User: Which sequence fits this backbone?
């Protein structure tokens, strides 16, 4: 299945198939004349699929090396990007080289960030192996590293040359990480596509069992929706901000929990919090919250904070969100299933008062 992210001369394909990894060398040969390829992966994914990719590249005549990071957000740092850049320099990789991200969202963000700044930008390929990365983070060109004071605060927009989604990699995805990706899937239904939301309700049992037809359709629909948004608003000047539904609250929870909450788990709760906040502002009805909660629970995602967190820590994490402007917050709030609004000028006091009854201290 082929989906195109339409960005004029920088357009690129998203290919969703099985058995892509053994073909990486041939596919890359068709995209670039350069013969150097660096594979960035993590210790979990690399042990499963790293050698398959390296063998395919070597067979196609590429000079390669692989750098493996420890899995998890803790590796997505500026210091780690410097280490990878040093490896590229030590291996004498040139401006026509390619950096391949083989892994989930952390690997994709980190490798893409390195690709965007190495010799002022080199070829970049996304091979997402987690559901979250396949449906969201691998598409659209957002690349970044974390800072001790905030998540994704150092980064840029840098589009890949291609996104190759090998469905076979989902067979080894742990159950918690599968659920983690489902939060971003549900997000698309909430923000732009009520019919897709209904599809997820109807096929929840099949998706939970990872049934091939339902999962392929689900991933393809998410990629199509994101590709459409990115094509209209590549650098998040307006429409693309809607993709951040639940993320301001969610990032606060991630940071306050020291990433004990996985990204999707925090976003699931964040979407519920945003909906509750919208309901208090009379923007949506209780029925919207109920529909969202039910679907999240169908996919075994949390719908309320289960960990004891400091309200001040949550607010501090939220305040570091990139959508904070001049001391006030921009929140993405639902009006109905399939429809959200970008709301500016929300004060910290208003959010604090709302959260006081929601955060377990």
Assistant:
């Amino acid at each position: 299945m082929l989906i195109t992210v339409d960005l004029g001369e920088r357009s690129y394909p998203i290919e969703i198939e099985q058995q892509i990894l053994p073909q990486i060398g041939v596919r890359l040969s068709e995209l670039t004349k350069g013969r150097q390829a660096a594979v960035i992966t993590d210790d979990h994914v690399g042990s499963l699929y790293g050698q398959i990719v390296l063998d395919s590249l070597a067979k196609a005549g590429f000079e390669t090396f692989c750098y493996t990071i420890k899995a998890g957000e803790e590796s997505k740092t500026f210091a780690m990007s410097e280490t990878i850049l040093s490896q590229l320099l030590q291996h004498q990789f040139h401006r026509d080289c390619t950096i391949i991200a083989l892994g989930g969202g952390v690997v994709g963000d980190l490798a893409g960030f390195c690709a965007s700044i190495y010799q002022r930008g080199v070829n970049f390929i996304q091979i997402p192996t987690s559901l979250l990365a396949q449906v969201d983070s691998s598409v659209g060109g957002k690349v970044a590293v974390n800072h001790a004071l905030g998540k994704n605060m150092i980064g840029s927009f840098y589009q890949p040359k291609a996104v190759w989604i090998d469905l076979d990699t989902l067979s080894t995805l742990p159950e918690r990480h599968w659920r983690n990706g489902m939060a971003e899937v549900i997000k698309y239904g909430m923000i732009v596509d009520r019919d897709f939301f209904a599809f997820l309700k109807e096929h929840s049992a099949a998706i939970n069992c990872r049934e091939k037809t339902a999962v392929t359709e689900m991933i393809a629909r998410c990629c199509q929706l994101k590709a459409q948004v990115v094509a209209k608003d590549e650098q998040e000047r307006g429409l693309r901000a809607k993709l951040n539904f639940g993320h301001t609250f969610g990032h606060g929870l991630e940071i306050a929990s020291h990433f004990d909450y996985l990204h999707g788990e925090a976003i699931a709760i964040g979407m519920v919090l945003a909906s509750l906040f919208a309901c208090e502002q009379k923007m949506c009805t209780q029925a919207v919250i109920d529909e969202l909660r039910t679907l999240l629970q169908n996919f075994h995602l949390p719908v309320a904070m289960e960990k004891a967190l400091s309200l001040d820590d949550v607010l501090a994490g939220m305040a570091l969100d990139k959508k904070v402007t001049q001391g006030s917050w921009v929140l993405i709030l639902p009006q109905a299933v399939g429809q959200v609004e970008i709301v500016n000028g929300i004060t910290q006091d208003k959010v604090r008062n709302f959260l006081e009854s929601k955060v377990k201290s």
